[in-house]
Amino acid sequence: MSILKLMTYSQDRLADRLLYIWKINETNPYNRLALYCLPSDMYQRVIENKYYWGQDFGVGFFHIVIRFDETTDRKVPKREIIFAAGELINTVAHFNGGYYYSVLSIHQVSPESMPHFHLIMDNVDFLNGKRLRMTKTYLYLLKNNINELLKKHNITEIRMKKT
After folding, report:
1. Residue 101 DSSP SS3
2. Which residues on adjacent β-strands are paired with residue 103?
3. Phi, psi (5° rounding) for residue 27?
4. Tens digits of residue pLDDT in 27-61
5. Which residues contact 74 (CB under 8 A, 6 or more apart)?
6. Could you give the CA distance from residue 52 to residue 46 in angstroms, rounded to a whole number?
7. pLDDT tens, 118-155?
8. In this structure, are residues 102 and 73 in contact, taking their beta carbons and an 8 Å threshold?
9. Dist. CA 152–CA 93, nearest whole Å
10. In b/e form, how buried is each residue of 34-60, taking b as 16+ CB within 10 angstroms?
């Protein structure tokens, strides 16, 4: 099973988290993806978006980590994992019909290790200013959406808790 971990942070941690997901020793610069902004513009875009819509308080963004199954997914070609990353950022950036600034980085500690994804997603829709609150229902929906695309790329699904 793949594992998804979702963390929330206040906006004052955004620069720190962006630097973390862009670790030089674990991230090939070609494995950084962004939607609606350049990876280097993510910080400025998110902060400006929050101030524009008056949403510069509370939870500032989501940091999503997806780790793949070390044994089963090792058989998946790397190009398939990269294709999945491209679809994943699109799925997250348009989650629940919204438009969210998002960046994704593929980490791989060593050539032999299994890559994993780090994704940072703004939680304020840049078209209408509505804030996304990640309730249990939305988290389940997000996991379902991600599972659909992982299946499409023959990657193990994310573990889902039974409700």
Report:
1. coil
2. 34, 120
3. -130, 115
4. 777 788 898 998 889 999 999 999 999 999 999 99
5. 114
6. 10
7. 999 999 999 999 999 999 999 999 999 999 999 999 99
8. no
9. 19
10. bbbbebeebbebbbebbeebebeeebb
Residues 87-98: tens digit of each pLDDT: 999 999 999 999
149: its two tokens = 């695309």
- Could you count the other beta carbons within 10 Å of the beta carbon of residue 77? 10
In order, the DSSP letters of 117-133 are EEEEEESB-TTT-PBPP
What are 109's two structure tokens? 């500690």
Find out whether 136 and 70 touch, Cβ atoms under 8 Å: no
Using the structure block, give the residue that is written with the tokens 């962004």. Answer: 34
Q: What is the C-alpha to C-alpha distance for residues 75 and 86, in angstroms, rounded to an integer?
A: 19
Are 86 and 79 contacting, i.e. CB atoms less than 8 angstroms apart? no
Phi-psi region of 32 (alpha: psi -120 to 50; beta: other; left: phi over 0): beta
The token duo for 76 is 């998946």
